[in-house]
Fold this sequence. Notes:
CATH class of the largest domain: Mainly Alpha
Strand order of the largest sheet: 4-1-5
Number of domains: 2
Number of helices: 14
Oligomer: single chain
Radius of gyration: 24 Å
Structural class: mainly alpha
Low-confidence stretches: none
CATH architecture of the largest domain: Orthogonal Bundle
Amino acid sequence: FALGIMPYISVSIILELLTSIIPYFDNLRRSGVEGRRKLTQLTRYGTVGLCIFQGLAISMWLENPAHFGDIVIVPNPGWLFRFTTVVTLTTGTIFLMWLGEQITEKGIGNGISLIITASILSRMPVAFHRVVQLVAAREISFFAVLIMLILIFIVVAFAIIINESERRIPVQYAKRVVGRKIYGGQTTYLPIKLNQGGVIPLIFAISILTFPATFLAFSTNRVLQKIASLLSPTGGVGMLLYAILTIFFCYFYASIIFNPDNVADDLKKYGGFIQGIRPGKSTAVYLEKILNRLTLPGSLMLTSIAIFPYIIMHIYKRIPYIVASLFGGIGLLIIVSVLLETLRQIEAHLLVRHYQGFLKKTKRL
Length: 365
């Protein structure tokens, strides 16, 4: 299970982007059950292909003693070792992919997301144990631990705000008379989230940084290894690149998820309009303006949480990443978003069965 479920996530995100760029994939998405089944098959095939590629790269890296101080890790290198490594790693990812699909189909919540969340949560006891060791070694004080706990609660609350905040635009529908009945006339709202892409911009940004850095690190060339270290988010250059890529993908993914032209056309088609705004092009321009105003603070807030652990590590050299990750990063954002979404689904199941829900109604931006 060394590769984990990330190959599946990477292929899924790539295919989701392709559906917005290439008409063939967009037609599959609009083809109903059969089209979605085809996209699922393509995702599986792409996952297997990516696992084979990554497994081969890992096996060749393990065969090179130069990466381990001239210590031989693999006594019998060759294609047999590479084949068994690729098969083992690919099988582990395929099993996790199958398990996630079974949870989604027969359980509550998204199975893949729950597996990722469980993996992240499983590292938290190790992180807290490391904090205890640092206190025992008197490398950090009890007061510092108290400050850390307060910071964790603040960051979690901040992550919930980013995930849940939205702008509600009032939409009115014109009255229509069909026979003796009057349809429409009601007022509803159009929600635009502060962070349209969730954690996907972070996944894209970190993937672009780590993918070349990983393969450059395999090289014994010192120049290439230096470039790989510069691309790491733990350094100043890598952190800056991570922030820039995150902001870029926030805008990029927001434009894919929320298309103002399509929304304006749908509103006009069904007789909806925003008060004071003409239907059609004017509505699209207004929605795009609102989207850009929300995406800027949303991307900055998301970036601040993403790079906060690296800032902590940069300031306090003694704190390892496993402890710094408690203060934010992509892992914390995934946990918050997945748990909130799972709670919503549990709430929906309870309400369908006439049980009282447990989620309180809160005001939104």
